[in-house]
Specification:
Blueprint lengths: L13 H6 L3 H9 L3 E9 L5 E4 L4 E4 L16 H4 L5 E11 L5 E6 H11 L9 E10 L2 E5 L5 E5 L20 E9 L5 E4 L7 H5 L7 E10 L2 E7 L2 E5 L9 E11 L4 E13 L16 E3 L10 E3 L1
Parallel strand pairs: 3-5
Antiparallel strand pairs: 1-2, 1-4, 2-3, 4-5, 6-7, 6-9, 7-8, 9-10, 11-12, 11-14, 12-13, 14-15, 16-17
Length: 307
């Protein structure tokens, strides 16, 4: 089962360029109901999207702008935010414009329906889902999982190390690997990615007691400071009043204890600037995960995800 490409992936593909190279080629693509891609250049007062096909202009009427728009399940902001960006669509016909020019009638809804029917509906929890981050809210990141269809990646599913906002870990346009966590009664998808970023043991193997490493302050409590060493691994340093969440630091690793799943640190220095985003390191490229056990085998507390 091949993933459906997110919006932006088809724009410069040779097949897409050929299909939009001339009115004849576009008519052939329309007859085959091929999914094409072009940039949206304007959104009209009636919320119709206008696309530049190169060989002619195209229009996507409001109700054809996305799945759920006609039913009131998708807000118009889903159309407004596409201006200046690529959109996928199917050409359903042609009409003559006010100046005698030919205009392609397009449907983004049909492209998204094809993505759902042939790809997304076949996914089950635990399946790998490549995604592209589109935007973030405090509660999670929204991701394009194919043809502009959005799925939610909750903030607590991004990594084991806790963050306050997805923007601390992800940026719009970033390609990420995720797993399908669940699907609700309306077909909306929820994703997770922390299960791909390694177990406690896998991350702890990257460090050793006695080393001095860089980290990011993630939590400041009366009993200590939580310092992120990797997105899926954090340690506890002594309490300090001069730490701020998101601040970079240098920490000395005092001890690594798998039985208690505990790393003891000592903060050597604090940065005056916010820490840069830690690069994501994926420890798995499996097409499906049934069970992910984060905790070490010798630890009494079992931390796991069962899909």
């Amino acid at each position: 089962m091949r993933p459906w490409p997110p919006e932006g992936a088809l724009l410069d593909a040779p097949e897409n360029r050929q299909a939009t190279s001339s009115p004849i080629a576009l008519a052939e693509a329309a007859a085959r109901r091929r999914v094409l891609e072009a940039k949206a250049v304007k959104c009209g007062k009636d919320r119709a999207l206008f696309v530049d096909l190169g060989c002619m202009a195209g229009v996507i009427e409001r109700d054809e702008g996305a799945l759920g728009v006609k039913e009131g399940e998708t807000r118009d902001v889903a159309l407004l935010t596409r201006v200046g960006r690529p959109v996928q669509f199917v050409v359903t016909g042609f009409r003559t414009g006010p100046n005698g020019e030919r205009i392609a009638i397009c449907s983004r809804r049909l492209a998204q329906r094809a993505c759902v029917d042939t790809y997304l509906d076949s996914l089950v929890p635990g399946d790998a889902v490549p995604a592209v981050v589109t935007h973030s809210e405090r509660f999670g990141a929204f991701c394009d999982v194919g043809a502009g269809v959005c799925a939610l990646l909750p903030v607590d599913c991004i990594s084991v190390s806790r963050i306050r906002h997805p923007a601390e870990r992800l940026i719009p346009g970033q390609k990420i690997r995720t797993l399908l966590k669940s699907r609700d009664a309306l077909g909306r998808l929820t994703l997770t990615m922390k299960e791909l970023l390694g177990t406690w043991d896998e991350n702890a193997a990257l460090i050793e007691a006695g080393e001095t490493v860089t980290g990011i302050v993630r939590g400041v409590e009366p009993y200590g400071v939580f310092v992120e060493l990797t997105p899926n691994l954090a340690g506890l340093a002594e309490a300090r009043s001069d730490c701020v969440p998101g601040q970079g630091c240098v920490a000395y690793i005092k001890s690594v204890n798998p039985e208690k799943m505990k790393i003891t640190l000592s903060i050597v220095s604090l940065s005056d600037a916010p820490a840069p985003r830690t690069p994501l390191r994926y420890f798995s490229d499996a097409p499906h995960v049934d069970r992910f056990v984060y905790s070490p085998a010798e630890c009494e507390r079992v931390v796991e995800t069962v899909f």
